[in-house]
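Exercise 7. Predict the joint structure of the components listed below.
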Amino acid sequence: MLIVYTISDSNNGLTLQGKAIVKTEYGTGIISNFLKEEYQSMNSAMANAYMKTFPMEAEKKVSAGKRNPVLDIPEFNNTWNIYRETSLDIMKRYEYMAQCVDFTDKDTEAIRESKDILAPHLEAILDHIYWEKLINDPWLSKWFRDETGKISKEYVTIRRARQRRFILKILECKWDEEFWNFVRWVGAVHVPIFGFEDLYIPVRLNLALWGYIHQYLFNFLAEQLKDDPEKLRRITSAWTKLFWLIIDVYHIDYFAPWM
Amino acid sequence: MKINAVWFEGDCVKCAMCIEEASGAFDFVVEAGPQVKPDIDITSFTEEIKRAAGLCPTQCIKYNQ
Ligand code: HEM
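Solution:
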């Protein structure tokens, strides 16, 4: 992300009042009116934060004097194209990851098959995740409390309903662009990109919850399918692959593109 | 079958999902919550309204068909 600050004097250069124009790859915007001193302190705070994140930038740049020939090698050129395309195009990302984890039409079929087992218990599964797991965990429950620290039943009801919609969407088994954009959106609302600016759910909590749901689902399926181990293998294997595909796309907006 | 009347009843928690699902039929009014848009042809939003009703966490969306 490229950030450029410019000061535009509003009064023949005599005033210290200015505007910061932030240019990013997503567009250009004016962030505020402020005094020059404020601009300087903000500028250095930003610069400090940037340097902490990318300490290598503080090192003196010395040209190696050699060109990097890596892209002349067809195999690496190919890899670069995969990286570039899967970063830009969510469907290409899904297709690449799907072939990597070996997620095939047979897996989609197995997930469809599991719908008959899961759908009748969906409400109970959601009740467990929200009304038992989330609200009783000392850290996860933080986001479900009101200002006084009490669990807000109304808010838990809302979160549960949105999670229910998400799971129903997964069970439709339509792995199209709309679906993957929705998965990305769901992940993105957990960081201050869209939604609330002060909302940030640490990655480890997402992983904790994904991990918890994963094992809960598997134990549930194992119980339901204890007389049909082949079906259990088929379904749990398909869900494992799908979980990883979803977890990847869900976290796109948590990380810099190169991650 | 087409829906010919829709209304809200009960304890809405204002999750706003009904507006996301059936934006042609419903509006979100701050404080009051979701409302049926005036002067619309309800029948043409049958699918969306049914989907919204199926997702409503408090089953507040009622309709006749
Ligand atoms: C398995 C991982 C998770 C999944 C699948 C998930 C799913 C969702 C979904 C579907 C939404 C609503 C998106 C929408 O309909 O617009 C949402 C929002 C939210 N989730 Fe999660 N979530 C996960 C992890 C967490 C964790 C660990 C927390 C915190 C304990 C959390 C707290 C929230 C909050 C506070 C919102 C509201 C964001 C907003 O309204 O802007 N989520 N989540």
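Discussion. Residues 1-19 of chain A have pLDDT under 50 and may be disordered.
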